């Protein structure tokens, strides 16, 4: 770009946007910020991935890595903080002390779209529910995007394409940084203790964070939630929300929402009643039935045809790294559930196992309480392979429950051990119940390494 063009562009700039963290959400926000005539500066305390660096260079966006230039950051009108940065980070504390507005990518980006937003959060099932909802709407002919905590960043999608609908998977960290963000349809899949290390080990603070998804909704909006979840019910009994409630339940009949009767899912909204058999769902298991009920309720609200919903549910095969069957070797099934980053997700995984299981577990503990897994481990797990830098909590929790426990420090080592231990008819399950950042870049990296190591056996 010529210098005169840069000068001309800069003369139109009204506000200074500083972005902390140059990952998917940070770089996407930088692209949208430039498009909306912000003066943009990107700062990452760590090293920026080469692919993201090239995007910043291509868009002529100023950036730095391996540290923060405080003066440049504190001069911001608004700061977009990447989800991984805690509020306790010293630079965030200084920004707030200086009354600089700090928001999430979701908050920043949502002001630049007219799309109908479907926001999906929860401790577990949100990726599957968001992906399934996206498929239902896409198959129903809507011009829809899938983003947020999954795939391409919400901000970049807005910068590049005008969508009519956006399905967003939202983490508690993303919701912590919203002020005006308002989904037309909000979904809360369930609640279980997660990320407690970020919430001062207070479950109530984590729950409050999840419920931020409904805080700006009005009577014209919808809240779809697990009506069987005790913590959700408790919060709703103690707090008022304005949106229309549509619970889904496996055990109770509901006036509006979704419920099960005679092995059929019934979905009831203002103007529509749908039924479909559970037996034909592409994904089996109670938790997946709930995911299907939530996604189908969204699709019904948005007037997707019943036949389209049914066909999409029958053909949907799940998401990568979630109970993904990789290979069967010597009649041993290897299953990748790397996305299970908390105890509750691993509970679902172990509960679904019907063969003796060699369980690969461990990583960065987020304040886990393993007690609820003990009955399942006792019943189903023949050996535990610990995969993490510090496995002391896992050893303490299960050392007396299984006959064999092995500590490993790499995925290749873990798979070699599993291969030696597993016998015909067994399963090898990677379901870590922990974050991945001690030995891997992400849960995706962990899952890919698992699949690669299995294929090399």
Automatic annotation (TrEMBL):
Gene3D superfamilies: Mur ligase, C-terminal domain, Mur-like, catalytic domain, NAD(P)-binding Rossmann-like Domain. Residues 321-434 form the Mur ligase C-terminal domain. It is found in: Cytoplasm. Residues 120-299 form the Mur ligase central domain. Its EC number is 6.3.2.9. GO terms for cellular component: cytoplasm. Cell wall formation. Catalyzes the addition of glutamate to the nucleotide precursor UDP-N-acetylmuramoyl-L-alanine (UMA). Belongs to the MurCDEF family. This is UDP-N-acetylmuramoylalanine--D-glutamate ligase.
């Amino acid at each position: 770009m010529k210098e005169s063009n840069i000068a001309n562009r800069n003369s139109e700039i009204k506000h200074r946007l500083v972005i902390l963290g140059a990952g998917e959400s940070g770089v996407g926000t930088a692209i949208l910020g430039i498009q909306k005539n912000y003066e943009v500066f990107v700062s990452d305390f760590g090293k920026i991935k080469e692919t993201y660096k090239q995007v910043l260079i291509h868009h002529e966006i100023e950036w730095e890595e391996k540290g923060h230039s405080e003066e440049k950051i504190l001069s911001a009108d608004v700061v977009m903080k990447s989800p991984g940065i805690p509020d306790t980070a010293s630079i965030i504390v200084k920004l707030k002390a200086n009354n600089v507005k700090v928001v999430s990518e979701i908050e920043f980006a949502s002001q630049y779209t007219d799309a109908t937003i479907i926001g999906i959060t929860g401790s577990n099932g949100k990726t599957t529910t968001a992906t399934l909802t996206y498929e239902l709407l896409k198959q129903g002919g809507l011009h829809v995007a899938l983003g947020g905590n999954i795939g391409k960043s919400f901000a970049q999608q807005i910068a590049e394409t005008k969508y009519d609908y956006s399905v967003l998977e939202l983490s508690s960290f993303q919701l912590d940084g919203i002020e005006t963000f308002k989904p037309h349809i909000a979904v809360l899949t369930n609640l279980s203790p997660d990320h407690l290390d970020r919430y001062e080990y207070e479950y109530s603070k984590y729950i409050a964070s999840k419920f931020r998804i409904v805080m700006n909704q009005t009577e014209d909006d919808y809240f779809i939630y697990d009506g069987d979840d005790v913590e959700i019910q408790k919060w709703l009994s103690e707090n008022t929300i304005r949106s229309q409630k549509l619970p889904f339940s496996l055990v109770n009949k509901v006036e509006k929402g979704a419920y099960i009767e005679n092995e059929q899912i019934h979905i009831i909204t203002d103007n529509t009643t749908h039924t479909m058999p559970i037996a034909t769902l592409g994904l089996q298991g109670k938790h997946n039935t709930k995911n299907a009920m939530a996604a189908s309720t969204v699709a019904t609200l948005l007037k997707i045809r019943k036949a389209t919903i049914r066909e999409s549910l029958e053909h949907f095969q799940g998401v990568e790294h979630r109970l993904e069957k990789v290979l069967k070797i010597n009649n041993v099934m290897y299953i990748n559930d790397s996305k299970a980053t908390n105890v509750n997700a691993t509970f679902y995984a172990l509960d679904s196992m019907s063969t003796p299981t060699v369980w690969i577990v461990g990583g960065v503990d987020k304040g886990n309480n393993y007690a609820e897994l003990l009955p399942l481990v006792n019943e189903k797990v023949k050996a535990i392979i610990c995969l993490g830098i510090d496995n002391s909590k896992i050893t303490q929790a299960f050392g007396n429950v299984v006959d064999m426990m092995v500590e490993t420090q790499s995925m290749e080592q873990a798979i070699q051990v599993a291969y030696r231990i597993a016998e015909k008819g067994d399963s090898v399950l990677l379901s870590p119940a922990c974050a991945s950042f001690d030995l891997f870049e992400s849960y995706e990296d962990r899952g890919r390494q698992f699949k690669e190591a299995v294929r090399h056996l």
